[in-house]
């Protein structure tokens, strides 16, 4: 199936379904839920990492790329999962965390033991002459990006947690080892690969301080050599499969670079995730802050990325949610009175856009953030570090906790809610994170109610049956409307106008004359009267088709 007709579902294995009662989701749990997944008519499932890991960063600190962590099951379980998903027309996408390894990885341990071959796998640098760290770079999880390399007097670079040591991609042996990992899983029948923070692999060989006031990430993000690395990796691995689907997680990237990463003529990746739209509720770009989302900025970003990628022949992954983001309903929709309508509206925004939509587990139910009231409820390293940093900078516990409650990655990692029971039908044991709002938000309710899940099924069907959705052009629609984000899709003689009211108040939009009386292809409300002054209900989405 063409990439443009595909829809990809994301499963955070630790939280999807626990088959053995240990409180943690596992691969057999996914096998047991294939009948549910089949109902959505998705084409591929992206699994967050389930490789051997000490779990300091929930599996993004990999100690062995070639084996499955026993907490998730066995290689036999994985092989059965691949086969059963394939029998149901669903492919597998694995998460390739190749910018860094766990410090418990054999490569790092050999480097620590003095093996020079593996010491060249990492960024090992001496302190400056004055004894300060090799550079002033900061870790994305807070604190310095350098840690002592044993008792060698050297330091090793870690852009994330100190237990995640950055690999030196300038070293051809590193790139070959990474391609070998991808090829091992290709041989297991894996057709999809998500590349974790792949655009920070292009650090300069000579690492220098960031100028005062300049974020250190600007020195190593989206550097030109990343395109070379991706071309090489493509040719050495997934590019040999005509049906491969690849997506790069691109931190702080640009449209121009993302066109380069994804234009098929460049033989790099199929598509990219960019995150700019998910930073429109950040104060001055700071994640650990609180503000209502900036709607004009959100519209401008959604529009400029759709326009720019279309103009350049690039391809984007379309998403509101993932395992690193709080639930979108709490940020850009309404988790209360209009939960159902705003979930359907947000889904419409991305599923009728040009690109490949991703559905994060539970999004199709309208899942929202958990209602935790204690810092002890949060376990993610990034949130715990952020809380401590906020307290150190003078925030009260209340203010620091309030920020963590809105921005913690734990918010999207609570167990999938299968039913309204105390443990949401996720486990018979003690869940590793506690569900809190399963009473009214769960699979059983959705399958009976025909609301959000049913709406997702309709959106997915449109992508597979309507060329204007899958392959149509993109054009901006008025960007000055105070409540509505709209856009055009065009295909041969057809025009599709998609309008989305982002607020809980009704509003009126003036339709272009040609669209008056047009066919209502889809709406989350009944009885849409397509008049010149179109009334849009709270959180209404409507797609009008001409031709
Ligand atoms: O995330 C990349 C990243 O930059 C994260 O810091 C993310 O953007 C941030 O948490 C949003 O607030 C990837 C993985 O998705 C994430 O789970 C890992 O923790 C990280 O890389 C390190 O592997």
Automatic annotation (TrEMBL):
GO terms for biological process: trehalose catabolic process. GO terms for cellular component: cytoplasm. Residues 10-413 form the Glycosyl hydrolase family 13 catalytic domain. GO terms for molecular function: alpha,alpha-phosphotrehalase activity; alpha-amylase activity. Its EC number is 3.2.1.93. It comes from the Bacteria. Keywords: Glycosidase, Hydrolase. PANTHER family: ALPHA-AMYLASE FAMILY MEMBER, TREHALOSE-6-PHOSPHATE HYDROLASE. Belongs to the glycosyl hydrolase 13 family. This is Alpha,alpha-phosphotrehalase. It comes from Lactiplantibacillus plantarum (strain ATCC BAA-793 / NCIMB 8826 / WCFS1) (Lactobacillus plantarum).
């Amino acid at each position: 199936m063409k990439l443009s007709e595909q829809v990809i579902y994301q499963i955070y294995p630790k939280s999807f379904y626990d088959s053995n009662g240990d409180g943690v989701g596992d691969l057999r749990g996914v096998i047991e839920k294939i009948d549910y997944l089949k109902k959505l008519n998705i084409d591929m499932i992206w699994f967050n990492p389930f490789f051997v890991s000490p779990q300091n960063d929930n599996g993004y600190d990999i100690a062995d790329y070639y084996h499955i962590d026993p907490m998730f099951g066995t290689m036999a379980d994985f092989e059965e999962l691949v086969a059963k998903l394939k029998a149901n027309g669903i492919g597998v996408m694995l998460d390739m965390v190749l910018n860094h390894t766990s410090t418990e990885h054999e490569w790092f341990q050999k480097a620590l033991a003095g093996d020079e071959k593996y010491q060249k796998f990492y960024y090992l640098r001496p302190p400056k002459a004055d004894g300060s760290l090799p550079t002033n770079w900061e870790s994305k999880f807070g604190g310095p990006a350098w840690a002592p390399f044993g008792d060698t007097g050297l330091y090793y670079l870690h852009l994330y947690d100190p237990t995640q040591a950055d690999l030196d991609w300038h070293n051809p042996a590193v790139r070959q080892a990474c391609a070998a990992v991808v090829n091992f899983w290709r041989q297991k029948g894996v057709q999809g690969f998500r590349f974790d923070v792949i655009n920070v692999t292009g650090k300069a060989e000579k690492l220098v301080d960031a100028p005062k006031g300049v974020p250190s990430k600007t020195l190593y993000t989206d550097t030109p050599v990343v395109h070379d690395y991706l071309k090489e990796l493509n040719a050495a691995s997934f590019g040999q499969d005509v049906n491969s689907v690849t997506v790069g997680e691109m931190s702080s990237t640009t449209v121009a670079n993302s066109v380069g990463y994804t234009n098929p003529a460049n033989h790099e990746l199929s598509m990219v995730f960019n995150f700019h739209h998910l930073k429109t509720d950040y104060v001055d770009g700071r994640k650990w802050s609180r503000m209502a989302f900036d709607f004009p900025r959100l519209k401008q970003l959604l529009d400029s990325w759709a326009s720019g990628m279309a103009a350049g022949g690039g391809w984007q992954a379309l998403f509101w949610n993932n395992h690193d983001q709080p639930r979108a309903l709490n940020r850009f929709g309404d988790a209360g009175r209009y939960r159902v309508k705003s979930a359907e509206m947000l889904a419409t925004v991305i599923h009728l856009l040009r690109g490949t939509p991703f559905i994060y587990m539970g999004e199709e139910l309208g899942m929202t953030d958990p209602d935790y009231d204690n810092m002890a409820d949060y376990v993610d390293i990034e949130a715990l570090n952020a809380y401590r940093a906020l307290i150190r900078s003078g925030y009260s516990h209340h203010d620091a906790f309030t920020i963590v409650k809105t921005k913690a990655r734990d918010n999207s990692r609570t167990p999938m809610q299968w039913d309204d029971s105390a443990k949401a039908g996720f486990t018979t044991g003690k869940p590793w994170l506690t569900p809190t709002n399963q009473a009214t938000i769960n699979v059983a309710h959705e399958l009976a109610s025909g609301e959000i899940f049913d709406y997702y099924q309709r959106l997915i069907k449109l992508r597979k049956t309507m060329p204007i959705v899958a392959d149509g052009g993109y054009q901006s629609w008025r960007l000055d409307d105070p409540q509505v984000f709209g856009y055009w899709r065009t295909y041969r003689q057809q025009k599709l106008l998609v309008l989305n009211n982002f607020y809980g108040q009704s509003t009126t939009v003036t339709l272009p004359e040609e669209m008056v009386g047009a066919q209502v292809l889809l709406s989350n409300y009944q009885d849409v009267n397509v008049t010149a002054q179109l009334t849009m209900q709270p959180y209404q989405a409507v797609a009008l088709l001409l031709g």
